[in-house]
Design brief:
Structural class: alpha/beta
Order of helices and strands: EHEHEEEEHEHEHEHHEEEEHH
CATH class of the largest domain: Alpha Beta
CATH architecture of the largest domain: 3-Layer(aba) Sandwich
Helix content: 40-55%
Number of helices: 9
Strand order of the largest sheet: 3-4-2-1-7-8-9
Radius of gyration: 25 Å
CATH topology of the largest domain: Rossmann fold
């Protein structure tokens, strides 16, 4: 028996600053809303009360999605912590697969799976957030004749995700969070449903990894080998083409957009520099203690002086790195327009 498909599917992605925007969207949806709503917000691995917040913020009931659950119109399904949420023809799949853009749940897997399973019936929404998760997924939705809606960057607490989507995708609507809710509440249903080939994300991921090893054994490989390593596992990253968006993936399956990889490398660099400060200060302290012991033993001043000099050099180097980190932290960020770089 063929599954009964709802006339429309709404998928929403948000990150930093996105919960307030999400509440504004949900508040505008009526009790008879004729579509299921799927929500991914970047959260940690601990307990989440997001469904409770969303249920209190509007008239629709929100719950954490469960694996194999059949979905229905007028209900909000929230990706649980530490799980990707995928949409199939008539049910939800949860996956503990590799992180994408250093996130699980990630927005792109939800958007891709919905587009492949429901084609032009999908409306994808990008709200406030950092970096660029969701942009490739929104592009997939547009590639399947779906609708792309983005929060106005001027209305977003953190504009990076909306700006990334606007730069890379030809969107249909740019609205305030409240305006998005009003648009969804009154959006027209597609006149006809285009034929959709349902993609199985897990099978595709496994095939990619298997092909990766087979091609390396035969000295062949899709994509281009880079000098970069995966921030999650340390494996070599291959750059893959996905329209105008540069993407990176290791053979384990961790996937990165250009923006998310840059952001994670910046975090790794800062962590490495602070680690250097710590090591230099520890060595300087140990050198000072050693010099005191040398002088206490009655040894000549030359030996203790050399150890003191090394401690001073280490302290100067630590101060220089601290100054570098402080300058980097307070350096102005060059503005990027919503369409292209200035």
């Amino acid at each position: 028996m063929e599954p009964v498909l709802s006339p429309s599917i709404v998928v929403i992605g948000a990150s930093a600053g996105g919960i307030q925007a999400l509440l504004e969207v949900i508040a505008e949806l009526p009790a008879n809303f004729a579509a299921p709503v799927f929500v991914v917000v970047h959260i940690g691995t601990g307990r989440s009360v997001l469904p409770t917040l969303l249920s209190r913020g509007g008239v629709l009931q929100a719950t954490h999605a469960t694996h194999g659950e059949r979905f229905e119109a007028g209900h909000i399904y929230v990706a649980p912590p530490d799980c990707h949420m995928l949409v199939r023809e008539d049910r939800i799949e949860l996956s503990h697969g590799p992180r994408e853009n250093h996130s699980r749940p990630a927005i792109d897997p939800l958007f891709r799976s919905a587009a492949r399973a429901h084609g032009n019936r999908v409306t994808g929404v990008i709200l406030s957030g950092a970096l660029g998760d969701g942009s490739t997924g929104l592009m997939t939705i547009k590639g399947h004749s779906g609708t792309a809606v983005v929060q106005d960057p001027d209305d977003a607490i953190v504009e990076s995700m909306p700006v990334s989507a606007l730069r890379l995708v030809e969107v249909d609507q740019v609205l305030t969070a409240r305006g998005i809710g009003q648009y969804l509440a009154s959006m027209p249903m597609p006149a006809s449903v285009k034929h959709v080939v349902v993609g199985q994300e897990e099978e595709e991921g496994a095939t990619f990894i298997q092909d990766d090893f087979a091609e390396q054994e035969n000295d062949r490989r899709r994509g281009q080998l880079t000098m970069f390593t995966c921030p999650d596992c340390g494996g070599t990253l291959w750059q893959t083409a996905d329209g105008p968006i540069a993407g990176f993936r290791c053979h384990v399956g961790h996937a990165w957009s250009l923006e998310s990889l840059l952001g994670q490398k910046s975090e790794q660099l800062e962590a490495a520099l602070w680690s250097s400060v710590r090591l230099l200060e520890e060595r300087a302290t140990l050198s000072r203690q050693t010099a005191v012991r040398i002088r206490g033993s009655g040894a000549g001043p030359g030996r203790s002086g050399r150890v003191d000099d090394q401690a001073q050099v280490d302290e100067q180097r630590a101060d220089a790195i601290r100054e570098l980190l402080d300058v980097s932290l307070h350096a102005p960020v060059r503005a990027v327009s919503h369409g292209a770089e200035n």
